[in-house]
Amino acid sequence: MIYTIQQWYTPAEVAVHNTATDCWVSLNGKVRNLTPWLEQQFKLCRCIKSCSCPINNWYCRDECVEYCPCFKRGFLYCDAKRLAMTILAYAGKDVSHWFKGDEWVKYTHPIVGSTVPFHQYGHGNREPVVPSTKWRPICKCGPWWLDESNVVGKVTAKTRPIRITNTLIGTSTTLEVCSEETLYQIMMRYLPHNSHMLSYTWRYLDKPLKYDLTLEENGVPDEREIFNVLALPENLHIPDLLLYYNDDLTEDPPKECYCEHQDCVTGHPEDCHNVHIEDS
C-alpha cells in the first residue's frame, strides 16, 4: 500500500488546531498553518515580559497570562502583536469574511472619505490613511494571507458520513469524510482501523468501487438533503461500504513511505522512500 499525504480537511479537523503552538486557520478554501508566523510576530515585541509561570516566553501554558508593558499602557499596537493576538483568537476558525479575494474587505473612511482596508481585526502591512504615531510596520516579509508556504491543504466545501464494514471480522466504523476525497484518500482515513486495506475488495451494493473516484462518482449518494426535505433525521441511513478479504499474502511498505499517487511505485516501497527523501 502506498501512503498518501492528506489534502482535504474537515472544519472539525481544523478546529482542533487552536493553540499558540498549533494554530491553523481556513481562508478562501485553503488551510494555513500560522504557527511559525505567530512565533515570529510575537518575537517582534521587544518589551520585557512578566509572566505568572516559571518559563517567561510567549507560548506559556494555557492557564498562564502574559503581561506586556505596552499592553498595560494601553498601546495595543506593540509591533505585530495586535494582529497576532487576533489571529490567535481565531485559531481553528474560518477567517474568509475578513477578505474579499486576496485583499482585505474595504470601507469608506469617515475622515478622509476614501476607500481603505477594513482592519477591524488588526492592522495590515500598509501604512494607515491617517498618520498615527501608534502605527508600526508588521514586518518586511510578505502578507501571511498570500504566503503559499503556510498552506497545508484545502478545507472541504461539504462533509458527509460514511460507514465501512469489514465482513471478515464484522466490525463497522463510521467516518466523517470530505466530499471531494477519492476512495483511496478515504482509505487513508480508515488506515488506523485496518493497516492492510489493499488486501480487501471494496464494494457498495455488490458493485466494485474505483479507488481514483469520489464516493459520488462511484455511485454512493449522499441522501441527507432528501431526508431534510422529508423532515427525517440525517443519520436515518448512512451508506455502508463492505470490505471483502482477498486472502492474499502481500505485505505493506513501511508507513514512512509517502507518495502523491497510488500506483507510482506500487511494489517498490524502497523507490518510493528514496524519491520522498530527494524531494524533501
SSE diagram, text form:
Layout: E1 8-9, H1 11-15, E2 18-19, E3 22-27, E4 30-33, H2 35-43, E5 50-51, E6 66-67, H3 69-72, H4 81-89, E7 99-100, E8 103-104, E9 106-108, E10 115-117, E11 151-155, E12 159-166, E13 171-178, H5 183-190, E14 200-204, E15 207-208, H6 224-229, E16 240-245, H7 269-279
Parallel strand pairs: 1-11, 12-16
Antiparallel strand pairs: 2-3, 3-4, 4-11, 5-6, 7-8, 9-10, 12-13, 14-15, 14-16
The side-by-side strand order for the widest beta sheet comes to 1-11-4-3-2
**Anisotropy-based shape:** elongated
Taking pLDDT < 50 over at least 5 consecutive residues as the criterion, the unreliable ranges are 272-280
Number of helices: 7
Question: What class would the helix/strand composition place it in?
Answer: alpha+beta
**Assembly state (oligomeric):** single chain
Distance between the termini: 21 Å
Give, in order, the helices and strands: EHEEEHEEHHEEEEEEEHEEHEH
Radius of gyration: 24 Å
The average pLDDT value, as a whole number, equals 77
